Recover the amino acids of this structure.
């Protein structure tokens, strides 16, 4: 008989209370805490659930208004609370895993060094990768940009008369607008990752690099599946929903003409690609159809197989707080009687490699740890960024694609440095965010009002006498002005919170009075 204690709700690191069942004999426990595998037995949500907030409005090349979309997400309290708690739970699990590895910091330094070495010798390792992949019987293609990637894949499919393609999760294909392109040429793409499939059926982009539908409540998923695959709209049990999706998708997988995977690591010495998943869906995509296409960002290269161990130990622990992904699959060549193609994609990476302040962003292994820890991301949802990459890593990658369109993003950060602290490959994320702010000002991509406000703040902060006079005047004003004057449209701080009560005495005046310091 289990001696594990029943758990109280709202313990730190626990599931959102709505997911907890009162009586659950099948629940899995670790260290006295229930794991989220048991969500299937959880209580149904209330009958009229909160509507899911949608992402940022995209208007051509105009700057994405992340703050506006974030405000809508925050205005949906069930979503915001669940999202915040769910991601913080991942962050806490990451910390627990990290504490079990005494050499964690050495691993991070090693991973960073391997990546930096590879990136500074990228031409050599890519050539080595190509030679070895060809020797394994793989067709290797090079794509300069997203359009070329899509055309190459389309050409391969056309040559094989393929009309349907199953694919596993790949941020690179999101970057390339791949699904959209394939639909324009009449090829059906079926996502095999559950979260990605949910997003595909809901016509949304992934909101997180690891957990694409993490911003959705179970009731949102029930709603999507009811409309697309005919499930019961009132049943939001996750086992029921997952099983229904499995039943609906399996026949499509078995009948698909071609399969596609992304790539977590491309090993130069073996010419093989490594894909890490928790659902085994990459293996389905690669092995069920006879034609396998792997899309590879050129920065995914690592020199040798032995280096993989460093990254595999870091990846899943950083991403989900689990020791390893369920599947770490190596694809070296075509299956018997089949054909394998690899498409090596640049799409701006070479140019980023030449950016002195930003090239180390190419070290990213897409673990999502920086997103899970970011207070802005956790409370605003990934779709509020209106870009392929969201959260802290998105703030430094997205402007390299389009500085105007993503000019607001580097300002969606508190610069607290938590992202840098958790990054398994030691990218100085918060420093790069700050560097992007300076860069955008230089490029005149910051609104005039913001520039003027920053200039005025800079002037004030650099003159101690003026600064103290302004603080004293503000304290008097806050103490005496009527509320409607303080909480007006210009007071962004006061939109969601109370302005702090002014202190009776500032620290500076106290110090001068009590310690006799001359100002
Ligand atoms: S920047 Fe670092 S923490 Fe963020 S996704 Fe990339 S590897 Fe992970």
């Amino acid at each position: 008989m289990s001696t594990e204690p029943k758990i109280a709700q709202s313990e730190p690191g626990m599931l959102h209370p709505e997911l907890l069942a009162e009586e659950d004999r099948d629940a899995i426990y670790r260290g006295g805490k229930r794991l989220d595998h048991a969500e299937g037995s959880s209580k149904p949500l209330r009958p009229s659930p909160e509507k899911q907030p949608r992402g940022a409005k995209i208007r051509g090349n105009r700057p994405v208004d992340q703050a506006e979309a974030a405000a809508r997400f925050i205005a949906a309290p069930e979503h915001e609370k669940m999202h915040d708690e769910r991601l913080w739970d991942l962050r806490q699990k990451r910390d627990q895993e990290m504490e079990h590895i005494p050499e964690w910091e050495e691993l991070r330094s090693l991973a960073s060094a391997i990546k930096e070495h590879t990136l500074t010798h990228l031409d050599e390792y890519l050539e080595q990768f190509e030679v070895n992949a060809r020797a394994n019987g793989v067709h290797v293609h090079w794509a300069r940009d997203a359009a070329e990637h899509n055309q190459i894949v389309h050409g391969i499919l056309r040559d094989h008369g393929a009309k349907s393609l199953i694919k596993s999760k790949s941020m690179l294909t999101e970057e390339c607008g791949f699904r959209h392109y394939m639909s324009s040429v009449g090829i059906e793409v079926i996502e095999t990752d559950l979260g990605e499939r949910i997003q595909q059926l809901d016509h949304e982009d992934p909101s997180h690099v690891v957990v694409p539908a993490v911003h959705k409540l179970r009731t949102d998923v029930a709603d999507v599946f009811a409309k697309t695959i005919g499930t019961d709209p009132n049943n939001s049990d996750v086992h029921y929903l997952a099983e229904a999706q499995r039943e609906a998708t399996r026949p499509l997988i078995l009948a698909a003409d071609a399969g596609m995977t992304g790539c977590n690591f491309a090993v130069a010495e073996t010419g093989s690609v490594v894909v890490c998943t928790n659902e085994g869906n990459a293996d389905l995509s690669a092995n069920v159809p006879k034609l396998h296409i792997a899309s590879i960002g050129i920065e995914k290269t690592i020199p040798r197989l032995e280096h993989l161990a460093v990254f595999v130990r870091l990846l899943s622990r950083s991403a989900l707080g689990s020791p390893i992904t369920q599947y770490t699959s190596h694809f070296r060549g075509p299956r018997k009687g089949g054909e394998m193609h690899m498409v090596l994609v640049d799409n701006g990476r070479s140019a980023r490699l030449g950016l002195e302040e930003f090239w180390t962003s190419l070290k990213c292994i897409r673990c999502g740890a920086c997103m899970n820890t970011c207070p802005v991301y956790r409370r605003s949802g990934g779709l509020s960024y209106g870009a392929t990459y969201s959260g802290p890593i998105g703030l430094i990658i997205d402007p390299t694609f389009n500085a105007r369109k993503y000019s607001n993003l580097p300002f969606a950060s508190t610069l607290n440095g938590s992202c840098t602290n958790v990054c398994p490959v030691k990218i100085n994320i918060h420093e790069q965010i700050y560097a992007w702010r300076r860069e955008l000002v230089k490029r005149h991509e910051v609104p005039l009002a913001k520039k003027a406000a920053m200039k005025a703040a800079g002037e004030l902060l650099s003159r101690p006498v003026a600064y103290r006079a302004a603080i004293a005047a503000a304290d008097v004003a806050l103490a005496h002005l009527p509320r409607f004057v303080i909480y007006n449209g210009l007071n962004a701080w006061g939109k969601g919170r109370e302005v702090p009560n002014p202190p009776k005495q500032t620290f500076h005046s106290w110090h001068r009075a009590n310690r006799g310091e001359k100002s």
Notes: The first strand starts at residue 29 and ends at 30. Confidence is low (pLDDT under 50) at residues 1-22, 37-44.
